[in-house]
């Protein structure tokens, strides 16, 4: 299985209410970064993969930059937990690669949970991708396949 964690790109300033926070849109910089990473990620992903997205507008806009069909999943929203996100992804048993477009600190906690068994405070930068993989059921130890941000995707071939 492959678990691809993609943090949403830069959004408008935080809003104190849950409803207001859900409607925060990407900034122009965020839209550029989402477009750059989305175009690059589309070339890297296999044709068959699941793309799961938080219903928050900034995550939906980030995912739209990928140019593929996706599903919004409430379990990926800002009030979720690492366990709920991993359950939604089907980690570690899902055979198809899964892209999760979500929020910090949750995505960092998901990564920490996968590697250490505890949801520590690991940081994933805005618009960045952390690609985690497992070789097989015989070799279940996860490994980092790739970690990249919007400043580096143009330099990768």
What name does CATH use for the topology? Answer: Rossmann fold
| CATH superfamily grouping | Phosphoglycerate mutase-like
User: What is the helical fraction, as a range of percent?
Assistant: 25-40%
Spatially, the strands of the biggest sheet line up as: 3-2-4-1-5-6
Average pLDDT figure: 94
Cα-atom radius of gyration: 15 Å
Number of helices: 5
**Proportion of residues in extended strands:** 15-25%
Q: What are the secondary-structure elements, in order, as H or E? A: EHHEHEHEHEE
Number of domains: 1
Q: What is the molecular shape?
A: globular
- SS-derived structural category: alpha/beta
| CATH class identity | Alpha Beta
Topology, number of strands: 6
- Uncertain segments are none
Describe the structure.
- There is one protein chain.
- This protein is α/β, with parallel strands linked by helices and 157 residues long.
- The protein has one domain (2-155): 3-Layer(aba) Sandwich (Rossmann fold).
- The protein has 5 helices and 6 strands.
- It has a 6-stranded mixed β-sheet with strand order 3-2-4-1-5-6.
- A hairpin with a 7-residue loop joins strand 5 (129-134) and strand 6.
- The chain is globular and about 45 Å long.
- It starts with a strand and ends in a 9-residue tail after the last strand.
- The model has no long low-confidence stretch (mean pLDDT 94).
